[in-house]
Amino acid sequence: xxxxxxxxxxxxxxxxxxxxxxxxxxxxxxxxxxxxxxxxxxxxxxxxxxxxxxxxxxxxxxxxxxxxxxxxxxxxxxxxxxxxxxxxxxxxxxxxxxxxxxxxxxxxxxxxxxxxxxxxxxxxxxxxxxxxxxxxxxxxxxxxxxxxxxxxxxxxxxxxxxxxxxxxxxxxxxxxxxxxxxxxxxxxxxxxxxxxxxxxxxxxxxxxxxxxxxxxxxxxxxxxxxxxxxxxxxxxxxxxxxxxxxxxxxxxxxxxxxxxxxxxxxxxxxxxxxxxxxxxxxxxxxxxxxxxxxxxxxxxxxxxxxxxxxxxxxxxxxxxxxxxxxxxxxxxxxxxxxxxxxxxxxxxxxxxxxxxxxxxxxxxxxxxxxxxxxxxxxxxxxxxxxxxxxxxxxxxxxxxxxxxxxxxxxxxxxxxxxxxxxxxxxxxxxxxxxxxxxxxxxxxxxxxxxxxxxxxxxxxxxxxxxxxxxxxxxxxxxxxxxx
Length: 483
Fold this sequence. Notes:
The protein is an alpha/beta fold. It has three domains: 2-39 and 58-79 and 219-291 and 429-481, 3-Layer(bba) Sandwich (FAD/NAD(P)-binding domain), CATH 3.50.50.60; 103-212, no CATH class; 293-421, no CATH class. The protein is 34% helix and 19% strand. A seven-stranded mixed sheet has the order 7-6-15-16-17-14-18. It has a five-stranded parallel sheet with strand order 9-2-1-13-19, with helices on one face. A hairpin with a 4-residue loop joins strand 11 and strand 12 (265-267). Helix 1 (10-21) runs parallel beside helix 9. The longest helix is centred in the first third of the chain and has 20 residues, at 117-136.
């Protein structure tokens, strides 16, 4: 049997390797010149930075992929646990670091917000229970495609309080300290969503950070892609980079082939699509139907290289805006880049990221994914200036003037490169129950032989989730064609 995987991102590479392991002949096509999709690498002069994910949670999912391919993860990658997870800088200049140990985190809270210790325990317990249920259900299959009902032992873990309301309101109900609230309100942005519009079940995200840890790959996250590409070459997976798929052919409700922009046609029995869910209809000959209100966040990324070190920074630092709710009103209601954005700064410590004595920094602020937005030179410049202005007000001054090299990725550029309307990073957002838990399934309803993986599809965005989507797809293909 033959399979064509559309997209050489993390989910596409993982799906390709799993299908090859099942004995299929696999070809991976990507419109980019480098594999990795959003998980990629920027190089300029003697500087390099990851351009996608900068941290890893649930490392057992990545570890399982390597195990299933035949070798332990440690033979290919060195992953290290980060402690503390991150440092948060508030508008008043105060700082808060989140330690890796849950017990140490509780002690930290007891020292400056003792009234919130019990509330924090409740938030953690809600996340724990959601994780236990998800591990046996949601992480294994789409809720509407489950072959059997969850067991009583699984269902009894469902939290009956707090998990069913609005995320921000539950956080406000259980935590009084404004700084602590702000830290916990940030987690829904990990899936491109607003804390004021998502269900409280996303409390599973902060739970997972303390339960499984925050990790990074020594040498950069792109090492994961390089390792999987090496596996692909070794196992016979064909990579066709710079080859855009422009159509999916089907006959009698079955996939038959993919058409490339070059005019080539690849016959196949299985297609795995890993792009944005909004763009799939176009490949099937149907119009794109997407509403800006459903899109997840995009981002504005500034990559900087300095010949001399500019600041002592934690590997992950978040510089909060003055008014968080107003920021999300800008992002999702007014659909404009925030007047005062929260800025995430990634400062890798590896020597290969910058020349001796220098420093490389990755800056990112959330941006709306509006397909109608115009990201011309002036709008990009204004948005970048707002990022630097927030950092200036937070004590990190002079970055723009001191940078030796710089590059900007804005939503318009992301939309063009990743064929994602508006430059959305995770497809649709997780606002409301339907979009949070009934994301597009991994087996397309039509035509037969079409499967979907990646952050746009079940179970969602982030490294572990897209790897789980590849697992699910491989299992579905095996069930459908090799039973």
